[in-house]
Amino acid sequence: MTPNTSGITGSCEAVVQLKNLCKSYFLGHSELPVLRGINLDFNRGEFVSIMGPSGSGKSTLLNLLGCLDRPTDGKYLLGGLDISEMDDDTLSGIRGKQIGFIFQSFNLIPQLNIIENIEVSLYYQQVHKLQRRKRAEELAERVGLGDRLKHRPSELSGGQQQRVAIARALANDPLILLADEPTGNLDSKSGREILDMLDELHSSGKTIIVVTHDLNIASRTQRSIHMLDGRIERQVTNGGRG
Amino acid sequence: MISLTQFTSIVQVSLRSLWLHRMRSILTMLGIIFGVSSVIAMLAIGEGASREAQARIARLGSTNIILKTVKPPQQTATDTTQQSIAIYGLTYDDAERFRVTIPDAQVVVQSKIISHKAYYRNRVLAVELVGTVAWYPELAPVELNRGRFLSTADLHYSEAVCVIDRNVADNLFVIDDPVDTDIKIAGNYYRVVGVVSETRVQSNEDMLETKANSAPDTTSAGGRIYIPITTMKSRFGETSIQFGGSTGMVGEKVELSEITVRVPNIERVLPTRDVLDGILQRFHKQQDYQVVVPLELLREAIRSKRIFSIVLGSIAAISLLVGGIGIMNIMLATVSERTREIGIRRALGAKKQDIVFQFLSETLLLTLTGGLLGMALGAIIPIAVTYFGKMPTVITSEAMLLSFSISAAVGLTFGLYPAVKAANMDPIESLRHE
Predict the structure, then answer these.
(1) Mode of pairing for the β-strands spanning B123-132 and A73-78
(2) Best residue in A68, A106, A178 to probe B by mutation, most B CBs within 10 Å?
(3) pLDDT tens digits, residue range B317-367?
């Protein structure tokens, strides 16, 4: 029932393959198509941005990429494994193990302290407590919050909170990082810091997919995908670094 | 399914979120605390009352069948002739018939009770004079304190000896040692040979004993004096005269007030009762006797205890139910408050069952803590009831176990729905939730 999710190795060049991916919502009897056949490949180590106006389907695409939802039609291969047919528990496992989420509003759990917030996904992967703690401390150190381990999220600035969220996303060493407007709630200085951090992660070999309205962010990525009405309008390869 | 470390961290997280809403948690717990403590207290009071009743009955002897002389009800109504002598009650012949019919009945005790006054020096005491046999203590709830009980020799020679009970000893003899002194009853002296204490509780007598023999002095007896039944027969005869108000004199002839038959085992009690009843019916034209079977009373007491417990228990259980609904209400509020957290956890790899465990453990922590506090309170209430209300209470481990498992069951039942609801929320919707 539960395929070994750690079997996703990503040995193939394309970490993510979308084949004619469709998603429709059903309101009563009427069908509301949101994604109308997306064909995309993301390569290992790629830094990609997805752009588009509201209602273009980029959030839906992000949800599908994050295994929070299942496509109505088409195929989604993550590291060579077909996600479209998996049951809820398996999808939960894949989310925890292979996907790192970075949200616009940070989404830290308020009653947990920093180290515990970083540990959450490790906890659901049944990582042993001591290992969990060690890994979380390393990550907190890496994002420059090694001295704030026992603080609550509410005691940190927005930029710091987002750094905790990045540490949390990295905890299980996922195949892809999904960032949804990661600087949307931040002042420009903190935003720059976060983007620098994403750049740094990219150069260390992470596959990062960013959904954004911000052209400045998009220009820092290798490739920008512009969406309109549930379709890919165009793809732009930036001269970005890395 | 879940590892021990996961379990401990689930509990830790639950404790923390309960602590975060201390006031709410405590108020929610109160419902369970009062529910559990009232279940325990109710059962303890019920158990105490029934144990007392059972102990009283058991003291009469569960293998005993007690036959009592009762004044026939229609006697005074039909027979208006003055100075007539009413003959009724159990007889020596009855006792003999019992002995012959049921040879293995251990002992047959005959006794006769009349009220009289006992004198010692200048002190007077109204007593019940009981004519009985030497083996009376084997069947009756009396315990020898000093001296000896009546002997077969006393009976054989119709000796003028008596055994007094504690009440008589205390009231008639203030400083003197009662043993080997003489007390005067109805003009005759009797030597005290022993002192007994009655283990029978007074209120029990009201239940079991219909005052069979209404002799001249019907003032409440201050105690009992036992004399050999043979002495009783020769000195008092079987007839007593009562000076009634308008009807003048009413004479009564009663041979025996009470016969106690003990059978070898409990299974024999009810058949023997029927046999004895049959014999009596054949020889007694009127219903001038009463059959008391302590075993039956005991069974009756146990039956009524069960009903009592069920009634009290269900009242208390309803309060637990109300507490449970309160918990469910709070948990539903908590779930909707923490929708976003649920979404985050789901995005970070939590399975539905992880979410279920998370919320269920919170509810269980609430109810089990409430259950434990309720048990403590439930143990205190009966003690207070016993102390202030002078009512016997017995806290049974079953009651403790029952109410604790009920509180756990309440936690599971009322926690499951909110927990499942939380787990089934769409993670995308939950993440968007403000």
Answers:
(1) unpaired
(2) A68
(3) 788 888 889 899 999 999 999 999 999 999 999 999 999 999 999 999 989
Element (H, E) at B329: helix B294-337
pTM exceeding 0.90: no
Tokens, residue A195: 């983007």
Question: In B19-137, at which residue ranges do the beta strands (DSSP E only) sit?
Answer: 64-69, 85-87, 108-120, 123-132
Residue B67 half-sphere exposure toward CB, CA atoms < 13 A? 30
Taking alpha carbons only, the member of A112, A93, A241 closest to residue A168 is A112
Query: b/e per residue, B126-150, with b = 16+ CB within 10 A?
Result: bbbbbbbbbbbbebbbbeeebbebb
Alpha-carbon gap, residue A166 to A183, rounded angstroms: 12
Q: Which residues in B lie closer than 8 A to residue A105 (C-beta atoms)?
A: none
Cβ <8 Å between A109 and B352: no
CA angle A163, A164, A166 (to 5 degrees): 65
CA angle B126, B131, B132 (to 5 degrees): 135
Name the residue among B314, B312, B324, B321 with its Cα closest to residue B385. B312
Q: What ipTM was reported for this prediction?
A: 0.91
- How sure is the predictor about B260, in pLDDT bands with cuts at 50, 70 and 90? confident
Cα-Cα-Cα-Cα torsion B174, B176, B181, B185, nearest 10 degrees, comes to -10
- What is the DSSP secondary structure assignment for residue A155, as one 8-state letter? G
Closest CA to A240 of A217, A222, A216, A213: A222
CB proximity list for A147: less than 8 A, separation 6 or greater: none
Q: How far apart are CA A166 and CA A193, in angstroms?
A: 12
Q: What span, in angstroms and rounded, lies between the C-alpha atoms of B324 and B293? A: 46
Q: Which of B347, B353, B354 is opposite residue A66, by nearest beta carbon?
A: B347
Q: How far apart are CA B229 and CA B231, in angstroms?
A: 5
- CB neighbour list of residue B106: distance below 8 Å, 6 or more residues apart: B138, B262, B263, B264
The first and second tokens of residue B234, run together, are 């020769």
Residue B256 makes CB contacts below 8 A (sequence gap 6+) with B69, B89, B90, B91, B92, B94, B95, B110, B111, B112
pLDDT, tens digit (0-9, with 9 covering 90-100), for B34-61:
888 888 888 888 888 888 877 777 777 7
Handedness of CA A44, A48, A52, A58 (dihedral sign): positive
Mutation target vs B (from A54, A62, A65, A124; most B CBs, 10 A cutoff): A124
